[in-house]
Amino acid sequence: MQIKGIDIEKCTQCGACIQECAPDVISKFVDETNPKGTVVKYDDPYDACSRCGHCLAICPTEAIDYSDAEPTFASEGVKKPQDVPYSTIMEIIRARRSIRQYKDKPVPKEEIEAVLEAMRYAPSASNEQNWEYMVFTDRKQIQTFSKKVTSVIELTHKLVSNKIISNVFIWGNTRKLVKDPSFLYSMGNLIKKVEEGKDPIFFNAPCVIVLHSPVYGNMAGCDSGIALTHGMLAAQSRGLGTCWIGIAQETVQRIKKLAKWLGIPKGRKVWGVMILGYPKVKFLRAPPRKPLAIEWK
User: 157 is in which domain, residue-wise?
Assistant: First the structure.
């Protein structure tokens, strides 16, 4: 999106856009040619505008001129978001589950696109919106992806199970991790499932979505988490289940060959891998969560 300027004929000079503009690129200037004696202008010589669109959202007369973007969206829900009850929001949030059992049923393209559309409207640091997505729906490709991840896990299990390697070449917190009985059990159990012909990575889900973006400070991972959460909640509302596959994400981040196989461009990093499909299981209640650790200041 590109802000082009302010339509003087439409502008009432209420100042709402000036107050809302974080980079201060909208200001009121003296203009003797204008009957009001002043005019509101958009002036951004240093390209400080983040294209957040708040000026568009707050202007009562739609006086902000812009290009290269879709029309703005107006509804009662936008004007009064507080009208959606907190209890409804909490019910949606608490109903979300990580699904690991899926029906052998493909997800229509329009359903996947609806989930991706929800991700598109996620907030991001400095409004970067740098996400790009890879969508896998071909069963053979998903199986190949799964096998590539499990082969790395199998090799890792062999290495950490070797006492000489684990004692001599592995140090610090990593050594503690690989010697943790629960860690060794989890890896062994995953490998056992592979040997049984199961898919412990993507759980036979008919769709795998990979999110990647450039690395920008410490925010890229946070932004990706918000985007995927938008997608998870949107999927749930359409009768679809999801699960964030952290082990696939970690493996792609660590193994350059796997990232190359996926076709991740240089300078970009995989920040999330999510599976999508129709749940084979129906949950009857939401489980409890541990209390938050809060320190009030």
Answer: 140-195
Q: Distance between CA atoms of 57 and 73, rounded to whole angstroms?
A: 9
263 and 164: one domain?
no
Task: Give how far Cα 102 sits from Cα of 207, 249, 275, Å.
Answer: 10, 20, 10
Domain identity same for 205 and 114: yes
- As a whole-number percent, the residues of the chain with pLDDT over 90 amount to 77
pLDDT computed for residue 176 by the predictor: 67
CA distances from 184 to 132, 152, 193, 207, 248 (A): 34, 15, 14, 29, 18
Residue 161: per-residue pLDDT: 67
| pTM, full prediction | 0.89
What's the CA gap between 223 and 221, in Å, rounded? 5
Residue 258, both tokens: 């796997």
CA 204 to chain centre: 22
The last residue of one of the domains, among 46, 75, 104, is: 75
pLDDT tens per residue across span 142-188: 999 999 999 988 887 777 666 666 665 565 666 666 677 787 788 88
Asked if 254 and 195 touch (Cβ cutoff 8 Å), the reply is: no
Check whether residue 110 and residue 246 sit in a common domain.
yes
pLDDT in tens, 240-254: 999 999 999 999 999
Helix (H, G, I), strand (E, B) or coil at 30: strand
Q: Distance between CA atoms of 15 and 27, rounded to whole angstroms? A: 8
Residue with tokens 């856009």: 17
Question: Tokens 């990232």 belong to which residue?
Answer: 259
Structure tokens at 197: 């012909």
